[in-house]
Specification:
about 15% strand; alpha+beta; 2 domains; about 100 residues; two-stranded antiparallel sheet; about 55% helix; 4 strands; single chain
Length: about 100
Amino acid sequence: MRQQRQSTEEWENTVAAQQASGLKAYEYCAKHNIHIQIFYARRSEINKKTTQTSSKLVKVIQFTPSLISTTPPLAIIYHGGTLSVTQPVEAKWLTDVMKALTT
């Protein structure tokens, strides 16, 4: 007897279940009586759709922390305490330290 066609949502659930099972695709398909070539075709369609959708929604920006150059050592003396900085540091870190000292 021929099986009824699955909807796209059902295939998405099947692919997700295979991935969550920890089984290889061919093992999962054998266990659940799914033709492996049909599984691969549907998984490919789902991955292509997901890639196309996500590429339109996500913009990747690479963040490079800015470092300030200091001639070692940099010393911040405040109320009798001394903070010595011997290596370049992120500007945000130094700004946060200065703000914390003034509050």
